[in-house]
């Protein structure tokens, strides 16, 4: 499915020190499992256009990786919804998710950028 201008998103950028990576990864894996239960790429559940999580070492100089890394790990959680009401449906289901408080805690502790109900303003 294609991402279109005007669709709503969640985009979270997290940064963790090496000793915290397993805590962040566990929360992300738990969130992904919950997403699989309540979201889909068809109209059988809360309808997504796109969902992915990326992970990378943080570079001292992103334009010259040869300068090494900081020791931190960066994560990017990205969700794009077919319909604007998907954001509200997601939040309603999240309130009933038993692990929502712990996931929210990880977002609050490690989140650097938390785009909630963002709008796609450019796409290919």
Structure report:
Helix content is 33%, strand content 39%. The protein is α+β, with helices and mostly antiparallel strands and 124 residues long. It has one domain. The longest helix is centred in the first third of the chain and has 18 residues.
Shape: globular
Q: Describe the biggest sheet? A: 5 strands, mixed
Ranges where pLDDT stays below 50 over 5 or more residues in a row are none
Number of domains: 1
Number of helices: 3
By secondary-structure content and strand pairing, the structural class works out as alpha+beta
Element order: H for helix, E for strand: EHEEEHHE
How are the strands of the biggest sheet laid out side by side? 2-3-4-1-5
Strand percentage lies at 35-45%
Distance between the termini: 12 Å
Overall pLDDT level: 97
Extended strand count: 5
Roughly how much helix do the residues carry, as a percent range? 25-40%
Cα-based radius of gyration, to the nearest Å: 15 Å
Furnish the topology, listing elements before pairings:
Blueprint: E1 8-17, H1 21-38, E2 39-40, E3 46-59, E4 69-81, H2 85-96, H3 100-110, E5 111-119
Parallel strand pairs: 2-3
Antiparallel strand pairs: 1-4, 1-5, 3-4
Helix pairs in contact: 1-3
Can you give keywords for this protein?
124 residues; alpha+beta; 3 helices; 39% strand
Task: Give a quick rundown of the structure.
The chain is α+β, with helices and mostly antiparallel strands and 124 residues long. It has one domain. It is 33% helix and 39% strand.
């Amino acid at each position: 499915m294609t991402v279109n201008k005007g669709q709503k998103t969640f985009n979270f950028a997290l940064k963790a020190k090496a000793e915290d990576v397993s805590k962040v990864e566990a929360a992300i894996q738990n969130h992904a499992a919950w997403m699989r239960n309540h979201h889909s790429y068809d109209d059988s559940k809360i309808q997504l256009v796109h969902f992915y999580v990326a992970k990378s070492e943080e570079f001292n100089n992103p334009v010259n990786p040869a300068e090494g890394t900081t020791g931190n790990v960066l994560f990017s959680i990205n969700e794009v919804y077919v319909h604007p009401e998907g954001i509200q449906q997601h939040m309603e289901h999240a309130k009933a998710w038993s692990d929502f408080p712990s996931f929210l805690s990880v977002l609050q502790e490690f989140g650097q950028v938390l785009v909630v109900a963002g709008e796609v303003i450019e796409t290919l």
